[in-house]
Amino acid sequence: MGHDAIILAGGAARRMGGRDKPGLRLGGRTLLERVAAAVPEAERVVVVGPPRDLPGVLFTREEPEGGGPVPALRAGLDLVAAPWVVLLAGDLPLMEPACVTALLQAAAPDRAPAAPDPGRVPGGQRVGAVLVDDEGREQWLAGAWRTAPLRAALAAYEGRSLHGLLAPLDPVRLRLPGTPWLDCDTLDDLRKVAQMNVLAEWTALACKELGVDPSRVDRDLVLELTKEVAHGVARPAAPLTAYLLGLAQGMGTAPEDAVERITTLARNWERATTETLTDD
Question: Do 266 and 127 share a structural domain?
């Protein structure tokens, strides 16, 4: 699918005290560099925001500067030539190329569904797809759109809200594992993402060192289990439990079943130990 990308990176970052948010660094790269790296197949990457040293990227500004996401989208769309466009915020450090691919595939699957699909333009073509968060809310700055309908909708729109512009197009709502839609509005957000980034990089390196397929590691499942054990039993029991879980999986126990059983045990730990200590 031929596509361009528009990255909106011209906000005032008021909740960060006016800091240069796209220029903040995470793991050796700026937030903007991370988002740009999520669209490696884009024929053209357009950043709406102040010019930066980012090779291969086109920069433009909305009119007036700081006018909001709708004028920024309009400025970016003026430089788009591909039939599809990926629209992203400039502060999505967890966005990955696989997420963008999933959005494009959801927006234009190889085979049309049998049931009527309201998210289509005349002729049966879907208009786009947008990520939703864990609560099902659309994240309008994480989507993929057919360029022509988006351009037509923008030309007829007089409002200032992305929701007002994009919601009537009725895109496919897509939920993906993890939190690729997570943006960094505050420094606390950035610190949390930094911790998540460390965990992701450590998991990848450890899997490579041990010869383990990373796709078999449900990191969030293991972390939730160890949190239950640390709170319900004792902190030193958490890493020991993770090790025991690995042994159980190596012996053929399904990880989901093992996690459920150990979680139940941890939640009932106080009652279980009382029964054991008073048992005749």
Answer: no
Residues of the domain holding 37? 3-174
Pull the structure tokens for residue 7.
Answer: 């990255």
Q: Hey, what are 27's tokens? A: 């793991």
Which residue type occupies 6?
I
Distance CA 154, CA 24 (A): 31
Tally of domains within the chain: 2
Residues paired with 4 in a beta bridge: 85
Express each pLDDT in 232-259 by its tens digit: 888 888 888 888 888 887 787 777 788 8
pTM of the model: 0.69
Tokens (6 digits) for 134: 């864990």
Are the C-beta atoms of 105 and 128 separated by less than 8 Å?
no
**Dist CA 36 CA 90 (whole Å):** 8
Q: What CATH number is attached to the domain comprising 15?
A: 3.90.550.10
